[in-house]
Amino acid sequence: MTNPLRSAPPPPPSTPHPPATGPAGPGTALMLPVTAIDPNPWRPRHLIPPADPQDDLRLTASIARHGVQQNLLVRPTGHGRHQLLAGERRLRCAIAAGRTEVPVIVRLVNDHQAHVFTLTETLRRRARLHFLDQAEAMAGLLHEDWTLPELAAYLGKPLSWTARRHRLCTLAPAWRRLAKRPEGWCATWSAADFEQIALLVPAAQEDLLLCCRPRLERCATPRELAQLICSLAQDIATFPWHPGDAGLHPPAGACAACPHRSSRHPLLFDREEPSAESRNPGPPRHPPERRTPDRCLDPLCAATKARLYLERRVAALAARHPRVLLLQEGSPPHDLPGALRAWEVIPAARRARGALPAVVANGPRLGTVRWIKLARFPDLPRRARTQAASVDALSP
Q: Residue 249: pLDDT band by 50, 70, 90 thresholds?
């Protein structure tokens, strides 16, 4: 049985309009002054222009000669006013052609029914709709008690495609402006590219744009962009702190209960062939894996927890040892404040004379304690004394 809350009024029939204006009764075809029709507040804001820019001019010329041949759909709003439900382009061209009246069919529908009808009509013309407006229309239907499977069935799309397209509603404002800009460094990006950005939480999206712009510009395919996003969204299983530790960063809570982990959004990470909207269709974007990592979609929170975990490890060591050092492993993009490099130290036994505890401050071994001795460089001991670990040195 169809849910009456989700039903929308059927589209208007293409019947000839009467020669004269009649009473504005429900279901009646009549002529209505264009000045009595108000715009639809739920219509999409950024329709993609047609391939032929002369289409509107041809429709305007046809209306000037023959009038509007298909009725518009309106609903009464009181005091002689009507709200447009369908036919925005015909109304616009009729006004441009100098017509003072247009043929309409009046439907008596409430706000909920009008909203649902407008959204479904919007999605029905998705070929001419910007993908951000498409995502907002989908969000509107979900808000009107539709479900994601119902929406996928209506659009004739896979459930995972529908979930990723709806995820575009979480794009940060700066990324939304880039998506709607017809020129610029990401003008060739498709909806699939912005769907990759939308996997991250909005604050992380803004940080990505601010700090990784050169890397983003070098991403020539959606796959390269997906690899960049994957490098930022770390596998939660690799974090050195326990996922159930809610005291590490109380405002964020425990990783195990965090909503910003990929396992809470499985539809966003379903494996499937790249869509036709991809810039470079080819092999699958995600090669098969034996284990699907549960990734953190909030890299900024993960970085904060990493810093707090390092502070905790340093504080625990400092309670037992008068001097604790930081050790930088590998080649991070930026040197870590107050951390010694691997070539500046040599491994040492814990009880060896001159051995000092050092906490690994980066990489997969974050928080690991190593016992080291300072390498023999003339100025290194004095410099190392100024690089003793402290909370200030760990702060970003």
A: very high
What are all long-range contacts of 247-253, with beta carbons under 8 Å and residues at least 24 apart?
248/305, 248/308, 248/309, 248/312, 249/301, 249/304, 249/305, 249/308, 252/301, 252/304, 252/305
What pLDDT is recorded for position 253?
Answer: 95
- Beta bridge partners, 47, equal 129
- Distance of alpha carbon 91 from alpha carbon 43, whole angstroms: 14
What's the pTM value of the predicted model, to 2 decimals? Answer: 0.75
Residue 21 within a domain: no
* Inter-axis angle of helices 191-198 and 173-180, nearest 10: 180
Residue type, 281: P
- 88 classed as catalytic: yes
Q: Would you say residue 237 lies in a domain?
A: yes
Specify the CATH number for the domain of residue 222.
Answer: 1.10.10.2830
Name the maximum alpha-carbon separation found in the chain: 105
